[in-house]
Specification:
The protein has helices at 3-20, 31-51, 61-70, 81-84, 226-272; strands spanning 74-80, 93-94, 100-102, 105-111, 116-128, 136-137, 140-141, 144-147, 149-150, 174-178, 186-190, 196-206. By secondary structure, the protein is α+β, with helices and mostly antiparallel strands. The strands form three sheets. It has a six-stranded mixed sheet with strand order 2-3-4-11-10-9. A four-stranded antiparallel sheet has the order 1-12-5-8.
């Protein structure tokens, strides 16, 4: 959406709230509150799509719609060895290629953006592998790409070297994601001893960027989902307002009972006097 269309999201949200709750006693909603609910529902909307991607049949109108919605969520990141930092631990040594070798195998861990949400694909950029050796053109070393094979945290142990198969050839580098709550995401790529990695290029689905007018940040989603975002955000607000009203009634009732109890106590004290 454009910034103007993003502004219309807020206007339509407020119009519907005023229509649905015309006699509400709450103060007029400020811009920050309005866009807080719109962003909250945008996150839910995109995450729901991510969770159900594998259930959407390809070649359908629905899949075409989802593809259009998520187009802006697809990000590409290029990371070099110099910027990544090599996996280090006390039991590791470094081979002539500059890649860390630990007693569990050869690997490089690359940092990912905090906006990373879901892996799509990646490739390793290498200057040599078993199938070719690096060649220089002037001062530049030729770089080729090898598709990475994504493996799970469980299956990665099947690929890690042992003293008995250290010469094993890996047709494709193996990539494993490290994404845990409270930590920055990383991707660890395992290589055989014939491969000299120079970096990776990774394509992924990102977290949706929060939009607001103060920073002139428009909504990344297409105009096609305007109605979905407004309706969902309004529903969230109505639920919030209903909960806030119920909580206010409980607090008022508790205050009324406390007042009645205090009055009763005072009467009892007067009678005793």
């Amino acid at each position: 959406m454009t910034l103007e269309q993003t502004r219309l999201l807020g206007i339509e949200f407020e119009r519907r709230i005023q229509t649905m709750i015309p006699d509400r006693e709450l103060e007029k909603l400020d811009t920050e509150t309005i866009y807080s609910f719109l962003n909250q529902y945008q996150d839910k909307y995109v995450h729901d799509i991510y969770r159900n991607l594998d259930k959407i049949p390809s070649g359908t109108k629905l899949s075409a719609h989802v593809e259009a919605v998520l187009q802006a969520m697809i990000k590409t990141e290029d990371i070099s060895i110099d910027a990544s930092g090599v996996v280090n631990n006390t039991s590791s040594i470094t081979d002539p290629n500059g890649v860390t070798i630990s007693n569990t195998g050869r690997s490089v861990t690359y940092p990912l953006s905090e906006q990373f949400y879901m892996y799509i694909r990646s490739v390793s950029k290498v200057s040599s592998s078993f199938s070719f050796r690096s060649a220089k053109t002037g001062n530049a070393t030729s770089i080729r790409v090898l598709p990475n094979q994504l493996v799970s945290q469980t299956d990665v142990w099947k690929l890690i070297e042992t003293p008995h198969d250290s010469l094993r050839i890996m047709r494709y580098p193996a990539a494993v994601l490290n994404k845990y709550a409270g930590t920055k995401p990383t991707i660890t790529v395992l290589y055989d001893q014939y491969t000299k990695p120079e970096g990776i290029s990774i394509v992924y689905y990102s977290e949706p960027t929060h939009f607001d007018l103060m920073s002139s940040t428009p909504c990344e989603l297409p105009m096609d989902v305007f109605e979905d975002i407004v309706s969902g955000a309004v529903d969230l607000y109505v639920q919030y307002a209903a909960g806030a009203e119920a909580n206010k009634r409980r607090q008022d009732e508790a205050a009324r009972r406390q007042q009645q109890q205090e009055q009763a106590n005072r009467r009892n004290n007067n009678d005793e006097d």
